[in-house]
Amino acid sequence: MGKVAVAFAAAAVVAACSVAAVMVRRRVKSRRRWRTVVEILKEFEEGCDTPVGRLRQVVDAMAVEMHAGLASQGGSKLKMLLTYVHDLPNGTEKGTYYALHLGGTYFRILRVHLGGERSYLDVQDVERHPIPSHLMNSTSEVLFNFLAFSLERFTQKEGNESNSQGVKRELAFTFSFPVKHTSISSGVLIKWTKGFEISEMVGKDIAECLQGALNRRGLDIHVAALVNDTVGALSLGYYHDPDTVVAVVFGTGSNACYLERTDAIIKCQGLLTTSGSMVVNMEWGNFWSSHLPRTAYDMDLDAESSNPNDMGFEKMIAGLYLGDIVRRVILRMSQESVIFGPSSSVFSEPYVLRTNSVSAMHEDDTPELQEVARILKDLGVSSDVPLKVRKLVVKICDVVTRRAGRLAAAGIAGILKKVGRDGGGGGGITSGRSRGENQMQKRTVVAVEGGLYMNYTMFREYMEEALVEILGEEVSQYVVVKAMEDGSSIGSALLVASLQS
Ligand code: BGC
């Protein structure tokens, strides 16, 4: 071999070696980065762990807090608000009634026609629109003028057939925020939740604001009841099945209400109702217990929210927040490693990842997780995200949703415990009866409503599975969870109907 050839061969060997070295270094680096990401996931998963023992502690804490909230004003983070609803619709109602529902993401208007028998419930003309985002931090005047205008359009469309005698229309206002009621048809806003921020409205009578706006437009509509969405769902549940004693909403926000004996509402002594009971709006979104598995991501979410130190339970289980918890975990991973390529800064934007995208990614059953790839691309992640990273995203969605579903189940079991329907001896925590005393387990229906529950199968499955785990196979046979589509609005209209009969 000539000298030139030797030199050439040597250079080729050196080049090959350095390419190999670069590749090895890259591989080692990428393995190290991947290990970091896996460690972040592991730590997050451990932080979100909800073994049944911990869930039972949450159940007990919920029941104890309910008791404290009923004992005195401000006795607990659970407000346990009076609703002045003591008789629920029973199927004998007749006539045509309206509901306007201001939720967290949508507002709905509908009309129901009732024929005096349970089977004759005709829900007509359901209108559902997203709430324009500028309304969420406008003024009360702008908000209520908008609602009145929407109602006007709705009634104009129906022409004269539904209101042929020209009688005043009776309306339920389903208002999905905490209200301190003074009667079934009046009450003041305690605070905003779910990102709404119209501060001058706090302390104002909500029904009066709507009635004023309707009068200003010359509409012959009477606001006959102001109803929390959970109470609407309970009303529809009860209308169909009188064993319904609890209602829960899992939507943009979350909350529960239930039927309580008036003598157990100690903070309002002497409260008399014909039925001996009253629906209590728990406002469980504000529940807190040291047993809740809280991570650094939850703390950051809370600190950066519009209502820090408030609605801690809601921030772990409700639709507005699940997407943002997932986003925060992805953001941390992408800061520690370049797994999402150079455009990973898209995850810096709060609430850019919505819970409906989380549900679509979580439930992606395509072999290559194409739906996950599509959603990441739509968010602005420019590089092709490898399959193993897509799997990682699905896993994060799973951890967040599993924790939410299981904590939601613990919340429900806490209410069942308080009312003595958890199989633990019959009398609830105030009865003084001990566990194991022989009491017939009563059939109990829990009405559930809200987009998170209706549209996110995995959330629903985790919740239902955990409820059986907590209550045990035998007791859970007596607990029926029933979905109430549009229950909040329909049920509120039924409630107004029951007030007239
Ligand atoms: C509100 C509740 C409401 C729940 C579900 C919460 O943010 O405080 O009043 O029932 O969301 O919509």
Automatic annotation (TrEMBL):
GO BP, one annotated term: intracellular glucose homeostasis
One MF annotation (Gene Ontology) recorded for this entry: ATP binding
Domain Hexokinase N-terminal: 41-236
Compartment list: Mitochondrion outer membrane
Top-level taxon of the source organism: Eukaryota
EC number, as in UniProt: 2.7.1.-
Broad class of the protein's primary localization: mitochondrion
Pathway it works in: Carbohydrate degradation; glycolysis; D-glyceraldehyde 3-phosphate and glycerone phosphate from D-glucose: step 1/4; Carbohydrate metabolism; hexose metabolism
One Gene Ontology CC term in the entry: mitochondrial outer membrane
Domain Hexokinase C-terminal residues, every copy: 246-497
Main enzyme class: transferase
Keywords from the UniProt entry: ATP-binding, Glycolysis, Kinase, Membrane, Mitochondrion, Mitochondrion outer membrane, Nucleotide-binding, Transferase
Transmembrane residue ranges: none
Pfam annotation, one family: Hexokinase_1
UniProt topology in membrane: Single-pass membrane protein
UniProt family annotation: Belongs to the hexokinase family.
The protein's name in its UniProt record: Phosphotransferase
